[in-house]
Automatic annotation (TrEMBL):
Residues 260-361 form the Ig-like domain. InterPro entries: Ig-like_dom (IPR007110), Ig-like_dom_sf (IPR036179), Ig-like_fold (IPR013783), Ig_sub (IPR003599), Ig_sub2 (IPR003598), PDGFRL (IPR042495). PROSITE patterns: IG_LIKE. This is Platelet-derived growth factor receptor-like protein. Pfam families: Ig_3 (PF13927), VEGFR-1-like_Ig-like (PF21339). The keyword Glycoprotein applies. Keywords: Disulfide bond, Glycoprotein, Immunoglobulin domain, Repeat, Secreted, Signal. It is found in: Secreted. GO terms for cellular component: extracellular region. Residues 1-21 form the signal peptide. It comes from Paramormyrops kingsleyae. GO terms for molecular function: identical protein binding.
Length: 363
């Protein structure tokens, strides 16, 4: 009897132990499932989006290549010692560049640009103070043969090439002309090669300092030009105990309204005989730096030769006012019957076109 009871108790204990183990496994599996589900939810969260940089994807497109494979992302300005080679890179599979016009004007072999697969490379060897200016690049978008600049992916940096012997960016002109207009600011373009140079503006006659705001990337800004600003001025720079004087600037006051050319025409004679010589002059008064293009229509055109020449000069009109006189002269030698008739001069500038005419009659 006791042996039977002992066997029954052992069987009961074995069943209870199996039930507890299965329940523990179910609770463990349930906890692991919940842990896995929670992990999945964390991984499934959408990443936080970054705002698009107007300079391009990932920041500025422009970088400077330093030694030992290091790179420097460029900001608004950069100062580099004159004489030290410069290498710039711009991200993009097709890239356009702009740089100081000085480098194009003299067809500088020191400047080279190479397009790689993922970037464009600009190399400037032995840079000088004259190379100081803005360097820009942008991504070029093409649709077939048509290409255009991507306005959302462009970068620019003003680069100073510091030279202790050249505080001002050199100019090829000893005396530059600056036109003063009453309706817009004027700039005296004495730029420096180091951004923290102290610069002042001075009048030559009567001698004295001129009050104007200065920006090292452009020069002195005269916000409200007046006739009393006219004259010769120069800039004075001081840096680390060194003082230098810039080239001179001739300030001319202009009061000519912008618009199509104001043209007149005049013949040396309007009644002529066969065999006479006649000059017909077309004259335009306009803004000093505004180019004028002349074209002529006349009897016998393309049938016999005539001589046409042009010239322009600055003249003073009134007190302190400067304007430009542009002329085109048509010269006829040994008048013939085919030369009599109407002579028309067309003068054109960027604002429009004006036509004037006169007639040559037989005497």
């Amino acid at each position: 009897m006791k042996l039977w009871l002992l066997v029954a108790l052992l069987l009961l204990w074995s069943q209870l132990e199996n039930g507890l183990c299965q329940d523990f496994r179910r609770r463990k599996d349930s906890n692991e499932s919940r842990g896995k589900l929670i992990g999945k939810r964390v991984k499934g969260r959408p990443p936080k989006l970054k705002e698009r940089d107007p300079q391009g994807r990932g920041g500025t497109l422009l970088t400077q290549v330093l030694d030992k494979g290091r790179f420097l992302r460029l900001g608004d300005s950069l100062t580099v010692p004159a004489g030290k080679d410069l290498e710039l890179r711009c991200k993009g599979s097709r890239v356009g560049w702009t740089y100081p016009t000085y480098l194009d004007r003299f067809n500088e072999s020191r400047l080279s640009i190479k397009q790689q697969d993922k970037f464009s490379q600009l190399m400037l060897t032995s840079p000088s103070a004259a190379d100081t200016g803005e360097y820009s690049c942008w991504v070029v978008l093409c649709d077939g043969a048509e290409c255009e600049k991507d306005p959302d992916r462009t970068s620019s940096t003003y680069i100073y090439f510091a030279d202790k012997d050249e505080l001002f960016v050199p100019s090829m002109v000893y005396t530059e002309i600056v036109y003063l207009r009453p309706d817009r600011p004027a700039v005296v373009p004495c730029r420096v090669t180091t951004p923290h140079t102290r610069v002042t503006l001075h009048r030559e006659v009567p001698p004295g300092e001129v009050s104007a705001s200065y920006k090292p990337t452009s020069g002195f800004l005269i916000t409200d030009p007046m006739p009393e600003h006219m004259g010769v001025v120069y800039c004075k720079a001081t840096a680390k105990g060194t003082m230098q004087i810039s080239n001179k600037y001739q300030l001319l006051y202009v009061e000519v309204p912008s618009g199509p050319p104001f043209a007149t025409i005049e013949a040396s004679a309007t009644s002529v005989r066969g065999g006479d010589n006649v000059n017909i002059t077309c004259t335009v008064l306009g803004e000093p730096e505004l180019d004028v293009d002349f074209t002529w229509t006349y009897p016998g055109q393309d049938q016999r030769p005539v001589d046409i020449y042009g010239a322009w000069r600055l003249i003073a009109r009134g007190v302190g006012h400067t304007t430009r006189i542009s002329q085109s002269v048509l010269m006829l030698e040994d008048m013939e019957t085919i030369d009599f008739g109407r002579y028309t001069c067309r003068a054109k500038n960027r604002h429009g076109e004006t036509s004037v005419a006169t007639r040559l009659e037989p005497l």
